[in-house]
Amino acid sequence: MSGTDLSLLLLLSLILLLIFLKLITRPHPTKIPIKSRHVFITGGSSGIGLALARQAVAEGARVTILARDITKLEQAKASIRASTGTEIDIVCADVLDFNAVKTAVESAGVIDVLVCNHGVFFAYEVENMEMNMIENIIGVNLIGSFNIVKAALAGMKKRTDRRPVSIAFMSSQLGQVGIYGYTAYSASKFGLRGFAEALQQEVIADDIHVSLIFPPETDTPALAEENKRRPPLTNIILGSSGSMKADEVAKKALNGIKSGSFFVHCNFEGYLMSIMTAGLSPQRSYLMAFVEVVSVGVLRIVALCFQWTWYRSVEKYYAKSKRA
Ligand SMILES: NC(=O)C1=CN([C@@H]2O[C@H](COP(=O)(O)OP(=O)(O)OC[C@H]3O[C@@H](n4cnc5c(N)ncnc54)[C@H](OP(=O)(O)O)[C@@H]3O)[C@@H](O)[C@H]2O)C=CC1
Ligand SMILES: CCCCCCCCCCCCCCCC(=O)[C@@H](N)CO
């Protein structure tokens, strides 16, 4: 066979692969309209959630935010009024308290886009965390999201507006890879992935579409707090990874939700991580599925190189601390 024959054969197989993927990727592509719809954001009084609330308002949504601290909620409402001239609704509840969550969700009215964004994080070695801190991180981030979804789902299913609706979870790149210092946090965010994958199969028949958002480090009040007490190795390992502004993450998140994407990445590093960690997760875009299929081998090599550098940092660090 000549060189041209070979390249023709390769081209033909790639085209056949594309056609095959277009036929089989599920769920089907969808679009979630935001304008004039009810967007409910937990943890909407600060950081990424507040940025998301402001942008949803700017796109014409009716927005409700939920958090614990009424003063921060009032401040968020005032700041959105000042920057957009629009009123949002605020509801007060601890996501750990199912009855409080249910009352808050019911008072807000039927939800079209539910964003479980609330979350807490601290970086410590598991040995240096009390059980109550571990339970708090997993409780708020994972069980809290169950409480929210359980409270909102029946209403979303019974909605009279038959257009597609969305349930989105704010995970983290640490929901795609475990890093030194984040045992509890990664466990909570990996947990959200299992929740989201199974939930999508349960709600697809009701035209409800699940998104999992994977932000990198994002400049928010919570990150500033966490940074004060990070283990040195956590800093060394995360040192070179990119960080973003809350507004930029919110924009990526909202676009991901509107396009009904299951995985939502926020930057180029996140794009590569989404391909690397695609595994058995659903994929709506046959083009993205194509990219996953053809690049998975090479990206596995890149992933192993990252692990190599991380383990070298750990080895060097402990070699030094033994000598000292
Ligand atoms: N910042 C970062 O680097 C990254 C953050 N993320 C994720 O993004 C999400 C938002 O983080 P970020 O904006 O940084 O955090 P912030 O601390 O700025 O905001 C957290 C929000 O969640 C609310 N909240 C916290 N605990 C509870 C609770 N028990 N019940 C109800 N509401 C609660 C807070 O309000 P109140 O305290 O009044 O209840 C606040 O509104 C989290 O899920 C986080 O894991 C993901 C990747 C990176
Ligand atoms: C080429 C392939 C790219 C692979 C690179 C992998 C880099 C992983 C870095 C993970 C960083 C996660 C930060 C999230 C911070 C967070 O969630 C906060 N809440 C906690 O600080």
What does this entry look like structurally?
It is a single chain. The chain is of the alpha/beta class. It is globular and about 70 Å long. The protein has eleven helices and nine strands. It has a single domain, classed as NAD(P)-binding Rossmann-like Domain (Rossmann fold, 3-Layer(aba) Sandwich), CATH 3.40.50. The protein has helices spanning 3-24, 47-58, 70-84, 98-108, 131-157, 183-203, 221-227, 232-238, 246-258, 268-276, 286-323, and strands at residues 38-42, 62-67, 89-92, 113-116, 165-170, 208-214, 217-219, 243-245, 263-265. The strands form two sheets. It has a seven-stranded parallel beta sheet with strand order 3-2-1-4-5-6-9, with helices on both faces. A two-stranded parallel ribbon has the order 7-8. Strand 2 (62-67), helix 3 (70-84) and strand 3 (89-92) form a beta-alpha-beta unit. Bound molecules: NADPH dihydro-nicotinamide-adenine-dinucleotide phosphate and 3-Dehydrosphinganine. Residues 121, 172-174, 177, 179, 216-217, 223, 226, 238, 241, 269, 272-273, 302, 306 line the site of 3-Dehydrosphinganine.
Biggest sheet descriptor? 7 strands, parallel
What is the number of independent domains?
Answer: 1
In round numbers, the mean pLDDT is: 97
Say how many strands there are: 9
Approximate helicity band: 55-70%
Shape: globular
The structure class reads alpha/beta
Fold-level CATH name: Rossmann fold
Strand order of the largest sheet: 3-2-1-4-5-6-9
Strand portion, in percent? 5-15%
Unreliable runs = none
Cα(first) to Cα(last) distance is 65 Å
Fourth-tier CATH superfamily name: NAD(P)-binding Rossmann-like Domain
Order of helices and strands: HEHEHEHEHEHEEHHEHEHH
CATH class: Alpha Beta
**Which ligands accompany this protein?**
NADPH dihydro-nicotinamide-adenine-dinucleotide phosphate, 3-Dehydrosphinganine
Count every helix, treating DSSP H or I runs of 4 or more residues as helices: 11
The CATH architecture name reads: 3-Layer(aba) Sandwich
Radius of gyration: 21 Å
